């Protein structure tokens, strides 16, 4: 059947690239899409990048995949949106949109009658994510964030769905697979899971770096995922997996107690124990210090690299292997 999103169409055995205008109330944005309609029937897989600004590896890998994937290689349909949130990507380059200071990955499935970011989330969810047989959202460590690569997904009350999602997450070939114990919240993959879609989050890269090697590693992971889903045959050019994927679970988050300057004592990748000092927030006006300690025992999977922080800013996220 013809793959149609807005004015873009791809008949079976064809690939279409273009943009779709989306009305956000106060402005209109152009959403780029690549529609790959395979020569054989199969699943519909949706891949988004650029949900946040300043996270370049996912945008790079999604764009590369859109250029390389051809319909004669595909069983089913692949929908690729390399830049899902143009205001944040092109104008803000941070997690929050410059249109309304809203983090789109906290408001899915969105609200078509809400503010501009809520409207964008609603359009993306209704037109791209809904109806998918599998969904992957690509992220990276932002310009102030160090990060160890991982794949994330959410548990639901549906054991069959959870098993499919876990297998999909493991198929990417990353060492760490983090699961959340429920599908609550406004993340795109959580909202998709609530709709019964196997959905994962892939985090690759850090510090807002434009790293071709990281983009290549993510592209390989996407090829592995598509092979697992039966969308493509095993590609010959993909690097072999050198690690055993392992389930991890989040144990704690460390947030800033005050506005000030952040001086960490522990780095991403370090093992910490609950109560251990992980840094200080210093008031630049009077030099007073706020000691910051670990809220849990485990490994820091991502952390704050920026100097300036406000109250509630996430300074570190801690996880442990589930087994």
Short structural description:
The protein has 323 residues and is α+β, with helices and mostly antiparallel strands. The chain has helices at 56-68, 86-92, 116-129, 159-171, 188-194, 212-228, and strands spanning 3-5, 8-10, 14-23, 28-37, 40-48, 75-81, 134-139, 145-147, 150-154, 176-180, 199-203, 246-255, 260-264, 271-272, 277-282, 289-293, 298-304, 308-309, 314-321.
Helix content: 10-25%
Task: Compute the separation of the termini in Å.
Answer: 44 Å
Mean pLDDT: 97
User: Could you list the spans in which at least 5 consecutive residues all have pLDDT below 50?
Assistant: none
Specify the overall morphology.
globular
Compressed to H and E, one letter per element, the order equals: EEEEEHEHHEEEHEHEHEEEEEEEE
Give a quick account of the main beta sheet: strands, pairing sense, barrel closure: 13 strands, mixed
Strand content: 25-35%
Estimated radius of gyration: 20 Å
State the total count of DSSP E strands: 19
Q: What structural class results from the helix and strand content?
A: alpha+beta
SS summary, helix count: 6
Molecular structure report:
This protein has 6 helices and 19 strands. The chain has helices at 56-68, 86-92, 116-129, 159-171, 188-194, 212-228, and strands spanning 3-5, 8-10, 14-23, 28-37, 40-48, 75-81, 134-139, 145-147, 150-154, 176-180, 199-203, 246-255, 260-264, 271-272, 277-282, 289-293, 298-304, 308-309, 314-321. Strands 3, 4, 5, 6, 7, 8, 9, 10, 11, 12, 14, 17 and 19 form a 13-stranded mixed beta sheet that branches. The chain has a 4-stranded antiparallel beta sheet with strand order 16-15-13-18, with no helix packed on it. Strands 1-2 form a two-stranded antiparallel ribbon. Helix 1 packs across helix 6 and helix 4 (159-171) packs across helix 6 (212-228). The protein is globular and about 65 Å long.
């Amino acid at each position: 059947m013809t793959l149609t999103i807005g004015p873009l169409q791809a008949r079976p055995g064809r690939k279409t690239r273009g943009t779709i205008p989306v009305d956000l109330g106060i402005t209109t944005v152009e959403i780029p899409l690549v529609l790959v309609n395979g020569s054989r029937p199969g699943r519909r897989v949706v891949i988004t990048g650029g949900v946040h600004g300043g996270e370049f590896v996912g945008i790079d890998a999604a764009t590369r995949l859109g250029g390389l994937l051809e319909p004669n290689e595909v069983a089913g349909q692949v929908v690729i949106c390399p830049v899902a949130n143009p205001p944040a990507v092109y104008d803000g380059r941070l997690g929050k949109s410059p249109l309304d200071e809203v983090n789109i990955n906290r408001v899915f499935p969105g609200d078509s009658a809400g503010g501009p970011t809520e409207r964008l989330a609603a359009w993306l969810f209704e037109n791209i994510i809904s109806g998918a047989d599998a969904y992957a959202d690509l992220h990276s460590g932002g310009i102030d964030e160090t990060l160890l690569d991982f794949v994330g997904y959410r548990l639901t009350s549906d054991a069959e769905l959870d098993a499919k999602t876990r297998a999909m997450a493991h198929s990417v070939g990353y060492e760490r697979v983090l699961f959340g114990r429920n599908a609550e919240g406004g993340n795109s993959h959580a909202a998709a899971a609530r709709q019964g879609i196997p959905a994962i989050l892939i985090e690759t890269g850090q510090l807002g770096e434009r790293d071709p090697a990281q983009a290549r590693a993510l592209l390989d992971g996407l090829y592995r995922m598509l092979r697992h889903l039966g969308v493509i045959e095993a590609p010959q050019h993909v690097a072999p997996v050198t690690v055993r994927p392992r389930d991890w679970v989040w144990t704690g988050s460390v947030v800033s107690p005050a506005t000030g300057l952040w001086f960490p004592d522990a780095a991403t990748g370090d093992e910490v124990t609950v109560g251990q000092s992980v840094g200080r927030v210093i008031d630049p006006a009077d030099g007073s210090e706020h000691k910051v300690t670990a809220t849990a025992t485990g490994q820091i999977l991502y952390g704050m690299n920026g100097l300036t922080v406000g109250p509630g800013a996430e300074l570190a996220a801690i996880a442990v292997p589930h087994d």
